[in-house]
Amino acid sequence: xxxxxxxxxxxxxxxxxxxxxxxxxxxxxxxxxxxxxxxxxxxxxxxxxxxxxxxxxxxxxxxxxxxxxxxxxxxxxxxxxxxxxxxxxxxxxxxxxxxxxxxxxxxxxxxxxxxxx
Amino acid sequence: xxxxxxxxxxxxxxxxxxxxxxxxxxxxxxxxxxxxxxxxxxxxxxxxxxxxxxxxxxxxxxxxxxxxxxxxxxxxxxxxxxxxxxxxxxxxxxxxxxxxxxxxxxxxxxxx
Lengths: 117, 112
Hints:
CATH class of chain A: Mainly Beta
Oligomer: heterodimer
Number of helices of chain A: 0
Mean pLDDT of chain B: 93
Radius of gyration of chain A: 14 Å
Distance between the termini of chain B: 36 Å
Low-confidence stretches of chain B: none
Largest interface: A-B, 27 and 26 residues
CATH superfamily of chain A: Immunoglobulins
Number of strands of chain B: 11
Structural class of chain A: mainly beta
């Protein structure tokens, strides 16, 4: 079974520029998550999708961050414009079965390391 | 918001010693999971314990869960230098969206 794919692995941008990250979840996983992990901290959930609908985006800074999951498969996370404090690792994860129906199978990708200078 | 608090924030031990990390959380859960993360690398799932379980073992790992105190501990026995990493607990509640909520982590250093 292929894992959760993320790209790029690394990205360096200047502040006020825009950047986009891509995630391809495990085939058949209905739920997709984006996390932000700042150095020295635990991962923080930014947004959760169920198929192509948003379940939870309460911690997404919507003035600069946006995310979409077209057709309920791949997802992109965008930052525009980036700030220095956005430097972090952005992790994508997917899970099945749909929420609330037991089981687990939460799988993380390797992440994208963003450096804003 | 973070669900858990982990204690200690940093732990330094000698090879062969045991390492114990603690995690406290705030809301009800269906399961609690422990992950390891080497510096600059991805998250590695270590072990999952369900809310109706009190103790679980996997190799040199032992996890306990006390739902009345909303706390868990991870014990690594006979530690090795290769165990040097950050360790995170994460909780999951299927009635709250099923997302994993992480603590801030314990940084473990095992000296040869």
